[in-house]
Design brief:
By secondary structure, the chain is α/β, with parallel strands linked by helices. The chain is built from 15 helices and 24 strands. The protein is globular, with a radius of gyration of 23 Å. The protein binds adenosine-5'-diphosphate (ADP). The site of adenosine-5'-diphosphate has 23 residues, from strand 14, strand 18 and strand 19.
């Protein structure tokens, strides 16, 4: 016997319909790439998204066609995103921080037909245009007045859009149709394309909105500092309109002062980004003596959030930290660290201990930790294993079948992370499996050591890598970037760490460098550091 409910396919653009119908006057405020702040509403954004859909349709773009975007978070990017969704085309957000050769590779692999590009990234496109044979047209996300002289053929978005009106209806199609694409950084081998469906995006956003996850409401004013090109924008391009929250889009300025200006001027209540962004903000706040009076919570993920960062946000600025873990392959949210009743009374150090964990999954994410033989490990908060996940918004394959089969017989995807889970279901990442330090047959967590080291007042950033050791296989080397203008020595940092770290985990040496290399998504580039210190010998 079947249920007798209506067929109502879970299509992403219905999210925008909902926002326009019930939260139509709510604003989307963006720092434009041209400079000034720009304000629109869900209702107007929907009209322009429909116009964009019609214009795309006129250009012959339709079902399954991939279209690249190389753009910051602004209203134009958002309306192009929904315009594509509404005709069954596929938004393909490209990370402009990748090397030009990687961008070429990704666009050609995706066979993108058009590209929407911000003024900021025109030099990239000018340099690689002749290597992009599938791209039929370059559309610059600006108006005619701001269009610069270009070496390539391109049209400004506003003139292009003006060739259509908004008298258009979204196309109808199956909810399993592809909606978006995002390539993983691919620290080894070529990047791999993750393909989201309409259904997976909608389900994922619904699961992510609930109070124990992002907890969004129409009273929130959310600023996704995380770019739309990083891991499906952490779903905020869907969760914000779904909950009717005001959106503040930071555009292209990511420095501490500019992020503060957006937070403060536009009264942001919740925001989200990787730790490196918050490092810049906290440094700016320290230097300027400014405070965060309106901001209520900050979602931090993409890399482990250092304890010192949680402590500073909460104790100095009265902003609650929500530590989150996820990955491009998971749409991307996997776990969020909200306080269940079992832990709600924790305070001080005990609360920080808990918040260093990446948290517990929303409905739709099933997780397990296993040993090398795929046997599930106990959830005791100590026994670690490979972290595996499954669910309706978790990848089952990469675009064009790259990488072959990526799920086990039970449909679980191996995240490549090593983690333990406690009795309350809180997961903690101890490392990327390729970054764990294998010392005397035991594993040392580089993340834990890094988190402790950045707690030292003079340390700006820390990385720990395993370096070959004749007796122990590998031993940890601590690499430090000191805060500007301070002089600190390695022995002092080790003294600070000693009471907090098991003896055999203590780094064997400390090295200072001016800058730690980061990936295009703000993660510490351990491979580059391992190369840099490949010949390192402990004294
Ligand atoms: P990319 O590989 O393109 O940078 P992802 O953002 O998909 O993209 O990377 C996912 C990986 O980032 C995870 O598998 C995990 O190793 C790491 N990660 C994400 N969030 C956290 C976190 N809160 N703590 C530790 N590691 C994290």
């Amino acid at each position: 016997m079947h249920g007798l409910m209506q067929d109502w396919p879970l299509l992403c653009h219905k999210v925008l319909d909902h926002a326009a119908a019930y939260h139509g006057g709510r604003e989307i405020i963006s720092r434009s790439v041209e400079g000034p702040f720009h304000t629109t509403t869900y209702s107007d954004l929907r009209k322009r998204a429909l116009r964009c859909a019609k214009r795309l349709d006129m250009a012959g773009i339709g079902n399954g066609d991939r279209v690249a975007t190389l753009a910051w978070n602004t209203w134009r990017h958002l309306e192009a995103w929904y315009g594509l969704l509404g005709i069954g085309a596929v938004y393909h957000t490209v990370n402009p921080r990748l090397f030009p050769e990687q961008i070429v590779w990704i666009i050609n692999h995706a066979e993108d037909r058009l590209i929407f590009v911000d003024l900021t990234f025109l030099p990239i496109i000018e340099a690689i245009r002749d290597k992009l044979p599938t791209i039929e047209r370059v559309i610059v996300l600006t108006d005619a007045d701001h269009m610069p002289e270009l070496k390539i053929d391109a049209v400004d978005y506003e003139s292009w859009l003006a060739e259509a009106d908004s008298d258009f209806a979204w196309k109808e199609f199956d909810e399993n149709q592809a909606a978006g694409m995002c390539y993983t950084s691919g620290t080894t081998g070529n990047p791999k394309g993750v393909v989201y469906s309409h259904r997976s995006n909608v389900l994922h956003a619904m699961a992510a909105c609930v109070p124990d996850m992002l907890g969004l409401s129409s009273r929130d004013r959310i600023m996704p500092v995380v770019p739309m090109f990083h891991a499906n924008c952490w779903s905020i391009a869907f969760t914000a309109p779904m909950s009717g929250a005001t959106m503040v889009m930071p555009g292209g300025k990511m420095d501490g002062a500019s992020i503060f200006e957006c937070l403060d001027t536009h009264k942001v209540t919740v925001t989200a980004a990787v730790p490196t962004v918050w490092l810049m903000l906290l440094q700016y706040l320290e230097e300027s003596g400014k405070s965060l009076d309106i901001l209520e919570r900050v979602v931090i993920g993409g890399s482990a959030c250092p304890r010192a960062m949680i402590e500073t946000f909460q104790n100095v600025y009265n902003v609650e930290v929500i530590h989150a873990w996820g990955m491009t392959e998971m749409s991307p949210l996997g776990t969020l660290c909200s306080m269940k009743p079992e832990v709600a009374d924790l305070s001080g150090d005990d609360k920080l201990d808990l918040q260093e964990k990446q948290g517990h999954p929303p409905f739709t994410v099933e997780m397990k930790i296993t040993d090398d033989d795929n046997r599930s490990q106990p959830w005791d908060g100590e026994t670690y294993g490979k972290l595996k996940v499954r669910g309706p918004a978790v990848a089952k394959a990469y675009f064009k079948g790259d990488g072959g089969r990526i799920v086990d017989d039970e449909g679980y995807f191996d995240t490549g992370d090593v983690a333990h889970v406690d009795a309350n279901g809180y997961m903690q990442i101890t490392d990327r499996s390729k970054d764990v330090i294998k010392s005397g047959g035991e594993w040392i967590s580089s993340i834990e050591l890094e988190n402790i080291a950045v707690g030292h007042a003079d340390v700006a950033e820390a990385a720990v890598i395993g370096v070959a050791h004749p007796k122990w296989d590998e031993r940890p080397l601590l690499i430090i970037v000191a805060k500007p203008g301070v002089s600190v020595d390695g022995a002092d940092i080790l003294d600070y760490m000693r009471p907090k770290v098991a003896k055999w985990w203590m780094p064997d040496a400390v090295e200072f460098i001016d800058e730690i290399p980061h990936t295009a998504t703000g993660k510490i580039q351990k491979m580059a550091l391992r190369d840099q210190f490949a010949d390192y010998v402990f004294e």
